[in-house]
Write a structure and sequence with these properties.
Length: about 375
């Protein structure tokens, strides 16, 4: 039985072209890029070329704003701990995070709260979008950091980052955004994006797992969280993953190449999936309707709610039929708690227990969608 993978928001397969770009670094340029001998200098040069390419593709002002790390989780942790810990002037500190952040932001926020800082969890509207006015109202005199994700991994809502960042800056707070899901889907031009720090991950864009990019705008005060050999200009110690960095740059290049056409193709598939799933059964509804506001949701995520069946049961039954999907996000799908994202947008607990996240990607076809809807109808 051929499997139909519909979980691209959890991770994507490695692009074969990315693998080819990485191969020489895994074998030839194996040397430590921090070694002074010629092989080390060669590896360093390959690493710096990758940094320069990423910086250009993302519209950073200078390559030194690009820090290679292990992925989105590390970037989010670095932002929350590293952008707050330096700030001794405002004490105790206040942070604002959206209530629909990934746990890589929410759990560090909880840790900061346990250390005496105050956190405001900003609720989005029922459409999953955070309003700049609500942010303005939440900010206090001692707000040091605002962290609001560019696009949500469960419901796909895209936030007005520039406006949100302006509100934070107008009140003297730094602004971080988790752009892990937005990369390749939303236009990102870092110099004009408004954020002081941004987290990205390679494995959501057909790149390798375990590599990420943390953008830190020049002159932003930051207390490094990973201490050691002082790599990455002292901001993230640890021998760099040269092959991973090359893979990230190659994956990003490919992801951005055909973005407008591919996003349009995904929107067409997603809307077809939604139309068909809604007409297949009156028990199916949507947590948000991306068809209502074109451009305000990621093109590849559909968040369905099924009345009277639990996510886990549906995921396993769909899996038996060859369809691979998620409940909420992949990392919370093993938990029996309903998704915090669905709760935050006002979905009832009962309905949230029956959530399905279908996420499409490069290899998804119309036939896959039709076959999925047939399988969904069968299990209902
Ligand atoms: N942030 C968001 C929005 C995500 O979707 C994910 C991955 O699911 C992460 C952070 C974590 O990224 P990584 O798996 O690279 O640590």
């Amino acid at each position: 039985m051929d499997k139909v993978y519909l979980d691209y928001a959890a991770t994507t397969p490695l692009d074969p072209g990315v693998l080819s770009a990485m191969q020489p670094c895994l074998v030839g340029h194996f040397a430590n890029p921090n070694s002074l001998h010629s092989s080390g200098r060669e590896a360093f040069s390959v690493l710096e070329q990758a940094r320069k390419r990423v910086s250009e593709l993302l519209g950073a002002k200078m390559p030194s704003e690009i820090i290679f790390n292990s992925g989105g989780t590390e970037g989010d942790n670095a932002a929350l701990f590293g952008l707050v810990a330096w700030n001794k002037a405002k004490k105790p500190l206040h942070l604002v995070v959206s209530a629909i952040e990934h746990h890589a932001v929410l759990h560090p926020a909880k840790r900061l709260a346990s250390l005496g800082h105050e956190i405001t969890y900003l609720a989005p509207g029922a459409d999953g979008v955070v309003s700049p006015e609500d942010l303005r109202a939440a900010i206090k005199e001692n707000t040091a950091l605002v962290s609001i994700m560019t696009a949500n991994n469960e419901i796909g809502s895209v936030q007005p980052i520039r406006e949100l960042a302006e509100v934070a800056h107008a009140h003297g707070a730094l602004f971080h955004t988790d752009a892990v899901q937005a990369l390749g889907k939303c236009p990102i031009d870092l110099e004009h994006f408004g954020a002081d720090a941004v987290s990205f991950s390679g494995h959501k864009i057909y790149g390798p797992k375990g590599i990420g990019v943390f953008y830190l705008r020049r002159k932003t005060s930051f207390l490094p969280q990973m201490l050691g050999g002082g790599q990455e200009n002292g901001r993230r110690s640890g021998t760099q993953n040269v092959a991973g960095a090359v893979g990230f740059a190659a994956a990003l290049e490919r992801e951005l190449e055909n973005r407008a056409d591919e996003n349009q193709r995904l929107v067409t598939l997603r809307d077809h999936l939604i139309d068909e799933a809604l007409s297949a059964s009156s028990r199916v509804s949507l947590s948000v309707d991306p068809r209502e506001k074109p451009g305000h949701y990621l093109p590849h995520i559909a968040s369905l709610l099924v009345d009277g069946l639990e996510s886990e049961t549906m995921i396993l039954r769909l899996d038996q039929r060859g369809f691979e999907v998620s409940g909420g996000s992949a990392c919370s799908s093993s938990s029996l708690e309903p998704s915090h994202v669905l709760k935050a947008i006002g979905v009832s607990t009962d309905l949230a227990y029956g959530s399905l996240r279908i996420s499409l990607g490069r290899y998804t076809t119309l036939q896959d969608i039709d076959a999925f809807v047939t399988a969904l109808s069968e299990i209902l």
